Structures are given as C-alpha cells and as structure tokens.
Amino acid sequence: MEQPLFHYVAFALTVAGLVAIIASLIGCWATCMNTYCVLSMYFLIILSLLVAEFGVCLMITAWPQCLGLNLNETAMVKTLQANYGVPGNEQFTAAMDLAQTIFECCAINTSINYDTSLWKLQSLGNKELTVPLTCCKLMNRFEFTAYLDPVPLNATLCQALQTQDYEKSRHLDVSNE
Predict the structure, then answer these.
(1) What is the sign of the dihedral through the CA atoms of 65, 68, 74 and 77?
(2) How far is CA 63 from CA 14, 23, 54, 56, 66, in A?
(3) Which of 33, 51, 66 is the last residue of a domain?
(4) What's the CA gap between 139 and 151, in Å, rounded?
C-alpha cells in the first residue's frame, strides 16, 4: 500500500460516518414525508450499509494479508534482535517487556531469539543476564508495573543456560508449555 494502513482506516471511517449521517437525515425526512419512495430509498441505504459492513468483516477474516494484518515471524525476530535494549529504542524495549509480562512468554517464539540480539552481543544490559528478567516467572506479575521492575521467583535458575535448570523458572517456548 502507498500509505500506512491507518490512513485508509481513517478515510473509511470518515466516509462511513458521512454515509450514516446522510442515512439518518433521509430517515428523518422519510418519516416526515410518509412516502414509499423515500422510505424505500432509506431502506436500501441501510441495507447497503449492512452488506458493506458484512463484506469488510468477511474480507478481514478471510484475507487479512490484503490489509497488512499478517504476521511475519522472521521479520518480528529480526526487529527484536535489532531493537531490544538498544539506546534510543526504550519504547520498543518497554513494549516487549510488557508483552512478555502479560502473556508470560519469552521473545517472539523462543528465548534463543535473544542470543543473537544486539542487547546480548553488545552487552547493552546487565552482563549476567541470559534473557531479560521479564522472561522469568515473576513474583510481582499481577502488579500493573511489573514489567518496569520485574522480580523473578528465582533469578539464578531463570538465567541458567541449561534447559533442565531454567524450565521451572522461565517462560518456555509455546510448544514446550
């Protein structure tokens, strides 16, 4: 698409709002005039709005790629590896930490995603960390700001390198949980 998705969404919502306003004016006019011609026009406008809405919902459900709603896992992993913990990308880091806290996950598909990230390779974070603390199972996970100050149940086991050591204290891959 030439423009960002939200440009088209804003345009579509504006047009839909204008059509709804016109339909409501015709509805008021139809009740005052009490003629079948105007009532038929009002009915057709309402019917076409419902059919168009159903078509858009069906298109989004059946073909999300046309709106750019598909997820490219490889691109997401590359974005994580390039932006997590990097100075200047604090909002991305906070968003990832929030997602990991809420969804109790680690990285995009596995904690290995962090092994080749700039955060790990350039030691931008704490050098003892194998994964961010939000990958660990947290004592304060029910607190609203837990992603800003995570308190792991067992930080030592969570940061271990062997799977059998960290499997009870770190959020695992989706396939393993």
Answers:
(1) negative
(2) 23, 29, 14, 10, 6
(3) 66
(4) 6
Paired tokens of 68: 């750019």
Adjacent-strand bridge partners of 152: 138
Domain count, the chain: 2
Query: What's residue 79's pLDDT?
Result: 93
Counting Cβ atoms within 10 Å, is residue 3 exposed (0-12), middle (13-18) or buried (19+)?
exposed
Answer yes or no: do 148 and 84 share one domain: yes
Q: Centre a 10 Å sphere on the Cβ of residue 176 and count the other Cβ atoms it contains.
A: 9
Report yes or no on 38 lying in a domain.
yes
The first and second tokens of residue 91, run together, are 């909002």
| C-alpha span between 1 and 46 (Å, rounded) | 30
The verdict on residue 176 lying in a domain is no
Structural domain for 110, as ranges: 73-167
* 146-170: pLDDT as tens digits: 888 898 988 888 888 876 767 788 8
- Cβ count within 10 A of residue 45: 17
